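As a warm-up, study this chain.
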Amino acid sequence: MSEPTEPDRAYLQSIDERTRRLLAQAVPDPSPFDGAPGELADAVERNVDGMSDRLRHVVQHLHAHPETAFREHRSAAFLQETLAAHGVEAVLGEYGVETSVRAEAGSADRGPTIAILAEYDALPEIGHACGHNVIAAAALGAFLALSSVADRLPGRVLFLGTPAEEGHSGKEVMARNGAFDDVDAAIMVHPYGYDLADQVWLGRRLLTVAFTGVEAHASAQPFMGRNALDAANLAYQGIGLLRQQLPPSDRVHANITEGGTSPNIIPNRAVLKLYARSQQPATLRDLSARLEDVARGAALMTGTGVELHWDEHPPSLPIRTNTALTGRWTVAQQRRGRAPLPLGVVSETLAASTDFGNVSYRIPGIHPLIRIAEPSTALHTRGFAAAARSEDAERGALDGAVGLALTALDYLFDEPLRTAVHEEFQNQGGAIDVPSYFA
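Now compare it with the structure written out below.
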């Protein structure tokens, strides 16, 4: 009884078997658009391949020096220095975030602007267990390959280093300070255990519930107390019961971070912290209201006071994928011998959250995934941290750089594609006002 039981892997194995069956049937959606001129696309791809040693160095250097959210000073400076070594001036600390990086190539006077986003923050204790070092290397390679043909670009490409994705929302902070005000579309790639053109990502909010009770002697006068820990316990149980009535894509996870100091004192303070996740902005808003009801009900039952504090860090919306852009990503990855799977092949239950969702509800965007690990290797584990420094990670950064560069090139050159991208975005509901959405 001194050790926990081992979780059964049967469900994960069933997901893997289902994915294999669907994989045999899956045909990536073809793109009906022509994209950029072939000779220019070939030149850009050669530019990326010519930087293979540099990109491998970026993967390994960032992995060896992990920095957590908003503390990525060394990583940001390293990216700035790498850009400078290629003759590109980059600026640190733009848009209200000290560790952001910004560089540009081409000219907005000649056409639209597309941003290639980089992440480079790591997780506490387990480092780059989400592979953001690979994200940064792919974005950097794509941008540098395009900057080398900047005089031929009918528009502008931005490199935006966006810190603090893990547990925070660095992109939303930057967005509120104007980072995407003059950007028409945004793209990035994330490492994973599969090559995916699209996958479900959930919106996420953070809620802190503070219960205030009345202290009393737990033996002599318990009837004079109002137990804040009881309120937190009831709320925790209420969340568990609520789960039965939630859509399958919703997630709620919580813990009690404060609950008293001594067993013989009725606690006058208890704190419950939780994450709420859902697949659509509207369903996330509904879930938020139901969680508030649970907390207030627990306070009512125990005679305690309650305060609700939402979003210590800005919320993350789910990703709204632009399929017209995704089609061009798929075409580019096929050049590299990969076959990105369409939405629905890999189970939607394997869903996390990212602040790129906030960008995708402002402007059209894509957030495909590229394989660097075995499918059974989960993000945010030491196993994935090891994968993020492997040869497969280096290859993923290189292929990801080609995919991002060619997708950006197609967007700038192909006017029918661009029209389809923005028509799709409008048909999906257009831009929403992210800061006020949950107000």
